[in-house]
Amino acid sequence: MASSSFLVTAAMVTVFAAVHLFIGRLTFLSAAPRSAWLSFSGGVAVSYVFLHVLPDLGVHKRAFASELGLAEAMAESMVYAVALLGLVVFYGLESTVRVSRAQSRAQGRGDRIGSELEWIHVASFATLNLLVGYLLLHRDQSGLSSLILYFVAMTLHFVTSDFGMRNDHVEAYQARGRWVITAAVVTGWLIGLAWTVPPVMIGFLFAFLAGGITLNVLKEELPEDRQSRFAPFIGGALVYASLMLLERGGL
């Protein structure tokens, strides 16, 4: 690996870690109605998924076909099925979290979730973070502009998802959760430095990431109690869509 690539991606993974560790200090994000920055970040993340991640699933379709011996149509269906699986898994997890919090309130124990569910929630985000860190070094598209678009989109996604996790877990996120997901994104980057994962495995994880990010962004923006702001959300989506279309067009 070139030293410049190492230094650039090392700086980027440091920013990822800083978001996880210090999101609690960004007190302006807790404003009501929902901070425009959170809605803008959600729009960016959704735009990145639909204009970069989902189209690139076609690349992984070929890996599924060649390495698993599948017909092209079946490989394509399987890739998108994995993306759907990611969305369903995270939806099920978020639904379980809401039920646990409601039961806790009904029992007079406050707005809390069970400790075992807390670790499942953190572990699921840690798994996504491993892949995000790895893909800093092993994306399908090379080049500095593609890397910057990926970095900015993932940074803003982390701002949105970490804010939501911090609200879900309160004390647990500050004491334990943030350290686990920080270690995960750094570990993913270190794995990328040392090893190259087989293409079919990256295809599986990449598709799962697409579904997971889509659900995580929408669950932060859509509920009524979030008091989300549509204008910043659509603004983030349009701005980032324009940048990606320019990058794809070689401008």
Automatic annotation (TrEMBL):
Transmembrane region(s): 6-23, 35-54, 74-93, 119-137, 143-165, 177-195, 201-218, 230-246
Record bears the keyword Transmembrane: yes
Record flagged with keyword Transmembrane helix: yes
Keyword field: Membrane, Transmembrane, Transmembrane helix
Entry protein name: Uncharacterized protein
Species for this entry: Croceicoccus esteveae
